[in-house]
Write a structure and sequence with these properties.
The protein has 306 residues and is mostly beta strands. 13% of the residues lie in helices and 33% in strands. The chain has a seven-stranded antiparallel β-sheet, with no helix packed on it. Strands 2-3-14-5-10-11-12 form a seven-stranded antiparallel β-sheet, with no helix packed on it.
Protein backbone atom coordinates (compact mmCIF):
# COMPACT_ATOMS: atom_id res chain seq x y z
CA UNK A 1 0.00 0.00 0.00
CA UNK A 2 1.29 3.43 -0.87
CA UNK A 3 1.60 5.83 2.10
CA UNK A 4 -0.79 8.74 2.43
CA UNK A 5 0.51 12.19 1.57
CA UNK A 6 1.65 14.06 4.67
CA UNK A 7 3.72 17.09 5.57
CA UNK A 8 6.31 16.91 8.32
CA UNK A 9 9.85 17.65 9.41
CA UNK A 10 12.86 15.36 9.35
CA UNK A 11 15.93 15.89 11.53
CA UNK A 12 19.16 14.13 10.59
CA UNK A 13 22.03 14.15 13.13
CA UNK A 14 25.56 13.37 11.93
CA UNK A 15 28.24 11.82 14.13
CA UNK A 16 31.67 13.34 13.45
CA UNK A 17 33.40 10.24 14.81
CA UNK A 18 31.77 7.98 12.24
CA UNK A 19 32.16 10.50 9.43
CA UNK A 20 35.91 10.56 10.12
CA UNK A 21 36.83 13.29 7.63
CA UNK A 22 37.74 16.97 7.37
CA UNK A 23 34.53 18.96 6.82
CA UNK A 24 36.41 21.57 4.79
CA UNK A 25 37.45 19.08 2.10
CA UNK A 26 35.30 18.60 -0.99
CA UNK A 27 35.47 14.82 -0.57
CA UNK A 28 34.09 15.04 2.97
CA UNK A 29 31.33 17.41 1.93
CA UNK A 30 30.33 14.97 -0.81
CA UNK A 31 30.29 12.16 1.75
CA UNK A 32 28.08 14.24 4.08
CA UNK A 33 25.70 14.98 1.20
CA UNK A 34 25.61 11.27 0.34
CA UNK A 35 24.80 10.34 3.97
CA UNK A 36 22.06 12.98 4.22
CA UNK A 37 20.55 11.89 0.89
CA UNK A 38 20.62 8.26 2.06
CA UNK A 39 18.89 9.14 5.34
CA UNK A 40 16.30 11.25 3.53
CA UNK A 41 15.57 8.13 1.49
CA UNK A 42 14.67 6.37 4.74
CA UNK A 43 12.51 9.34 5.76
CA UNK A 44 10.62 8.93 2.48
CA UNK A 45 10.00 5.26 3.23
CA UNK A 46 12.85 3.51 1.40
CA UNK A 47 14.54 0.52 3.04
CA UNK A 48 18.13 -0.51 2.37
CA UNK A 49 18.70 -1.76 -1.16
CA UNK A 50 20.23 -5.05 -2.24
CA UNK A 51 21.74 -3.27 -5.26
CA UNK A 52 25.28 -2.23 -4.35
CA UNK A 53 25.38 0.86 -6.58
CA UNK A 54 22.14 2.36 -5.21
CA UNK A 55 22.04 5.37 -2.90
CA UNK A 56 20.15 3.15 -0.41
CA UNK A 57 22.85 0.45 -0.29
CA UNK A 58 23.72 0.14 3.44
CA UNK A 59 27.52 0.32 3.03
CA UNK A 60 28.78 3.74 1.97
CA UNK A 61 32.01 2.32 0.51
CA UNK A 62 30.16 1.08 -2.59
CA UNK A 63 28.38 4.42 -3.00
CA UNK A 64 31.73 6.19 -2.81
CA UNK A 65 33.22 3.80 -5.37
CA UNK A 66 30.45 4.62 -7.82
CA UNK A 67 30.21 8.28 -6.66
CA UNK A 68 26.51 7.97 -5.78
CA UNK A 69 25.23 11.07 -3.97
CA UNK A 70 21.82 11.41 -5.65
CA UNK A 71 19.06 8.83 -6.22
CA UNK A 72 19.74 6.57 -9.21
CA UNK A 73 17.62 3.95 -10.97
CA UNK A 74 17.03 1.51 -8.10
CA UNK A 75 16.16 4.34 -5.70
CA UNK A 76 13.85 5.96 -8.27
CA UNK A 77 12.02 2.66 -8.75
CA UNK A 78 11.39 2.46 -5.00
CA UNK A 79 10.08 6.02 -4.85
CA UNK A 80 7.90 5.46 -7.92
CA UNK A 81 6.43 2.36 -6.29
CA UNK A 82 5.61 4.29 -3.09
CA UNK A 83 4.38 7.56 -4.56
CA UNK A 84 3.81 7.00 -8.27
CA UNK A 85 5.92 8.21 -11.17
CA UNK A 86 6.42 11.94 -11.69
CA UNK A 87 5.26 13.56 -14.92
CA UNK A 88 7.93 13.96 -17.56
CA UNK A 89 9.63 17.28 -18.22
CA UNK A 90 8.28 18.43 -21.57
CA UNK A 91 10.20 20.08 -24.38
CA UNK A 92 9.00 23.33 -25.93
CA UNK A 93 10.19 22.78 -29.50
CA UNK A 94 11.56 20.28 -31.99
CA UNK A 95 13.78 20.50 -35.05
CA UNK A 96 15.13 18.05 -37.64
CA UNK A 97 17.15 17.84 -40.85
CA UNK A 98 16.91 14.53 -42.74
CA UNK A 99 15.36 13.23 -39.54
CA UNK A 100 12.12 13.15 -37.59
CA UNK A 101 10.73 13.73 -34.10
CA UNK A 102 7.49 12.05 -33.05
CA UNK A 103 6.50 14.75 -30.53
CA UNK A 104 7.62 17.10 -27.74
CA UNK A 105 6.35 15.02 -24.81
CA UNK A 106 7.93 11.66 -23.89
CA UNK A 107 7.57 8.94 -24.91
CA UNK A 108 8.90 10.07 -28.26
CA UNK A 109 11.18 8.82 -31.03
CA UNK A 110 14.18 10.68 -32.43
CA UNK A 111 15.66 9.39 -35.65
CA UNK A 112 17.88 10.26 -38.60
CA UNK A 113 16.65 8.55 -41.77
CA UNK A 114 19.32 9.84 -44.19
CA UNK A 115 22.77 9.98 -42.58
CA UNK A 116 24.90 12.99 -43.53
CA UNK A 117 27.23 15.46 -41.85
CA UNK A 118 24.31 17.78 -41.06
CA UNK A 119 21.54 15.26 -40.29
CA UNK A 120 19.90 15.53 -36.87
CA UNK A 121 16.66 15.42 -34.93
CA UNK A 122 16.17 17.05 -31.53
CA UNK A 123 13.71 18.34 -28.95
CA UNK A 124 14.67 21.32 -26.82
CA UNK A 125 13.65 24.17 -24.53
CA UNK A 126 15.32 27.56 -24.14
CA UNK A 127 15.62 27.25 -20.37
CA UNK A 128 18.81 27.93 -18.41
CA UNK A 129 20.04 25.99 -15.40
CA UNK A 130 17.79 26.54 -12.35
CA UNK A 131 18.88 29.00 -9.67
CA UNK A 132 19.73 26.17 -7.26
CA UNK A 133 23.16 24.66 -6.65
CA UNK A 134 22.27 21.24 -8.05
CA UNK A 135 20.52 20.12 -11.26
CA UNK A 136 19.82 16.48 -12.15
CA UNK A 137 18.81 15.53 -15.71
CA UNK A 138 17.55 11.98 -16.35
CA UNK A 139 16.73 10.30 -19.64
CA UNK A 140 15.27 6.82 -20.03
CA UNK A 141 16.18 5.72 -23.56
CA UNK A 142 16.13 2.59 -25.71
CA UNK A 143 18.27 2.70 -28.87
CA UNK A 144 16.88 0.92 -31.90
CA UNK A 145 19.78 1.83 -34.19
CA UNK A 146 22.90 3.02 -32.36
CA UNK A 147 25.04 5.91 -33.44
CA UNK A 148 24.76 9.25 -31.61
CA UNK A 149 22.30 10.34 -28.89
CA UNK A 150 22.52 12.79 -26.00
CA UNK A 151 20.69 14.53 -23.21
CA UNK A 152 22.27 17.90 -22.61
CA UNK A 153 22.45 21.40 -21.29
CA UNK A 154 23.58 23.60 -24.17
CA UNK A 155 25.61 26.82 -24.22
CA UNK A 156 23.94 28.76 -26.99
CA UNK A 157 25.44 27.97 -30.38
CA UNK A 158 28.84 27.21 -28.79
CA UNK A 159 27.96 23.57 -28.11
CA UNK A 160 27.33 21.32 -25.10
CA UNK A 161 27.61 23.04 -21.74
CA UNK A 162 27.28 19.50 -20.33
CA UNK A 163 26.09 16.51 -22.33
CA UNK A 164 25.76 12.78 -21.71
CA UNK A 165 25.99 10.72 -24.88
CA UNK A 166 24.95 7.11 -25.48
CA UNK A 167 26.84 6.28 -28.67
CA UNK A 168 27.59 3.13 -30.60
CA UNK A 169 31.13 2.94 -29.17
CA UNK A 170 30.69 4.12 -25.55
CA UNK A 171 28.84 6.40 -23.15
CA UNK A 172 30.51 9.81 -22.82
CA UNK A 173 30.42 13.04 -20.86
CA UNK A 174 31.03 16.02 -23.16
CA UNK A 175 31.38 19.56 -21.86
CA UNK A 176 32.84 22.93 -22.77
CA UNK A 177 35.87 24.33 -21.00
CA UNK A 178 36.09 27.84 -22.39
CA UNK A 179 35.37 27.22 -26.07
CA UNK A 180 37.01 23.78 -26.21
CA UNK A 181 34.84 20.63 -26.09
CA UNK A 182 36.13 18.01 -23.64
CA UNK A 183 35.14 14.37 -24.13
CA UNK A 184 35.38 11.90 -21.24
CA UNK A 185 34.44 8.24 -21.63
CA UNK A 186 32.42 6.88 -18.73
CA UNK A 187 34.34 4.31 -16.68
CA UNK A 188 33.29 0.99 -15.20
CA UNK A 189 35.37 1.54 -12.06
CA UNK A 190 36.55 4.65 -10.26
CA UNK A 191 39.93 6.01 -11.35
CA UNK A 192 40.42 3.43 -14.06
CA UNK A 193 41.11 3.88 -17.75
CA UNK A 194 38.85 1.05 -18.92
CA UNK A 195 35.51 2.07 -20.38
CA UNK A 196 32.35 0.02 -20.35
CA UNK A 197 31.46 -2.31 -23.19
CA UNK A 198 29.68 -0.74 -26.15
CA UNK A 199 25.92 -0.23 -25.64
CA UNK A 200 23.54 -2.68 -27.29
CA UNK A 201 20.42 -1.89 -29.32
CA UNK A 202 16.91 -2.63 -28.00
CA UNK A 203 18.22 -2.50 -24.40
CA UNK A 204 16.82 0.23 -22.08
CA UNK A 205 19.35 2.60 -20.50
CA UNK A 206 19.05 5.06 -17.62
CA UNK A 207 21.18 8.17 -18.27
CA UNK A 208 21.71 10.61 -15.40
CA UNK A 209 23.64 13.89 -15.67
CA UNK A 210 24.36 15.92 -12.52
CA UNK A 211 25.60 19.52 -12.48
CA UNK A 212 26.63 20.90 -9.08
CA UNK A 213 28.06 24.21 -7.90
CA UNK A 214 30.92 23.23 -5.56
CA UNK A 215 30.72 25.06 -2.20
CA UNK A 216 27.85 27.10 -3.65
CA UNK A 217 30.32 28.71 -6.07
CA UNK A 218 28.68 28.94 -9.49
CA UNK A 219 32.11 29.41 -11.09
CA UNK A 220 33.34 26.09 -9.67
CA UNK A 221 31.31 23.37 -11.37
CA UNK A 222 31.35 19.60 -10.89
CA UNK A 223 29.83 17.24 -13.46
CA UNK A 224 28.83 13.62 -12.84
CA UNK A 225 27.30 11.21 -15.36
CA UNK A 226 25.91 7.70 -14.85
CA UNK A 227 24.70 5.10 -17.31
CA UNK A 228 22.75 2.11 -15.97
CA UNK A 229 21.20 -0.80 -17.83
CA UNK A 230 17.52 -1.05 -16.94
CA UNK A 231 14.24 0.80 -16.84
CA UNK A 232 12.05 2.40 -14.20
CA UNK A 233 9.15 0.39 -15.61
CA UNK A 234 8.05 -2.33 -13.14
CA UNK A 235 7.67 -4.70 -16.11
CA UNK A 236 11.40 -4.52 -16.85
CA UNK A 237 13.24 -7.53 -15.44
CA UNK A 238 16.78 -6.25 -16.00
CA UNK A 239 16.54 -3.64 -13.23
CA UNK A 240 19.47 -3.80 -10.87
CA UNK A 241 21.37 -5.80 -13.47
CA UNK A 242 24.21 -3.49 -14.30
CA UNK A 243 25.75 -0.29 -13.13
CA UNK A 244 27.45 0.24 -16.46
CA UNK A 245 29.73 3.22 -15.95
CA UNK A 246 30.16 6.76 -14.64
CA UNK A 247 32.55 9.71 -14.59
CA UNK A 248 33.01 12.62 -12.15
CA UNK A 249 35.10 15.65 -13.06
CA UNK A 250 35.83 16.50 -9.41
CA UNK A 251 37.32 13.23 -8.18
CA UNK A 252 38.07 10.83 -11.03
CA UNK A 253 41.56 10.08 -12.24
CA UNK A 254 42.33 9.01 -15.80
CA UNK A 255 46.08 9.41 -15.41
CA UNK A 256 46.25 13.16 -14.80
CA UNK A 257 45.48 13.18 -11.09
CA UNK A 258 42.17 13.13 -9.23
CA UNK A 259 39.79 15.70 -10.62
CA UNK A 260 42.49 17.09 -12.90
CA UNK A 261 40.19 17.86 -15.82
CA UNK A 262 39.88 21.24 -17.55
CA UNK A 263 37.18 23.12 -15.58
CA UNK A 264 33.63 23.35 -16.93
CA UNK A 265 32.23 26.80 -17.63
CA UNK A 266 30.25 28.74 -15.04
CA UNK A 267 26.71 27.83 -14.00
CA UNK A 268 25.12 30.73 -15.87
CA UNK A 269 26.64 29.65 -19.21
CA UNK A 270 23.91 27.05 -19.87
CA UNK A 271 21.06 28.51 -21.90
CA UNK A 272 18.89 25.54 -22.93
CA UNK A 273 18.31 21.81 -22.53
CA UNK A 274 17.69 19.19 -25.19
CA UNK A 275 17.71 15.57 -26.29
CA UNK A 276 18.80 14.65 -29.78
CA UNK A 277 20.32 12.29 -32.34
CA UNK A 278 22.68 13.10 -35.19
CA UNK A 279 25.12 11.65 -37.72
CA UNK A 280 28.54 12.85 -38.86
CA UNK A 281 28.67 11.57 -42.45
CA UNK A 282 26.75 9.59 -45.06
CA UNK A 283 28.65 6.44 -44.06
CA UNK A 284 27.21 6.45 -40.52
CA UNK A 285 24.35 4.19 -39.47
CA UNK A 286 21.00 5.92 -39.06
CA UNK A 287 20.39 6.95 -35.44
CA UNK A 288 17.06 5.84 -33.99
CA UNK A 289 16.38 6.20 -30.25
CA UNK A 290 13.16 6.01 -28.21
CA UNK A 291 13.14 8.50 -25.31
CA UNK A 292 10.51 7.05 -23.01
CA UNK A 293 11.03 9.40 -20.05
CA UNK A 294 12.86 12.66 -19.36
CA UNK A 295 13.09 14.61 -16.11
CA UNK A 296 14.96 17.60 -14.72
CA UNK A 297 15.13 18.01 -10.95
CA UNK A 298 16.83 20.71 -8.91
CA UNK A 299 17.96 21.13 -5.33
CA UNK A 300 20.31 22.98 -3.03
CA UNK A 301 22.21 20.31 -1.10
CA UNK A 302 25.29 22.39 -0.40
CA UNK A 303 23.82 25.69 0.73
CA UNK A 304 23.13 24.45 4.27
CA UNK A 305 26.45 22.57 4.53
CA UNK A 306 29.18 24.67 2.95
Amino acid sequence: MRPSLFFGKTTISLNDYWLGCDHSSHGCQDFIIEVIAHELGHALGLDHSTVNWALMWPDSSQCQQYRIFVPVLDDAKGLAYLYGQNHDTNFASSSASSGSVSGATPPLTLQVMTPASSSYAKVYSSTSLPSSQLAVMIGQVTPQTLYRFDIAWKQGSAGPYASEELDNDAAKLVYLSGTTPRVLTLLTQRNQTTSQTSPSPTVPFWLELVVEAINSNQNNIGLTAYVIVGSISPQNNSDGCCFDASIDTTVDNTGNGAGNFPPPNSWTSATSFEAGVWTDSSSNPASNYQLTDFWIFQGDLCNKLC
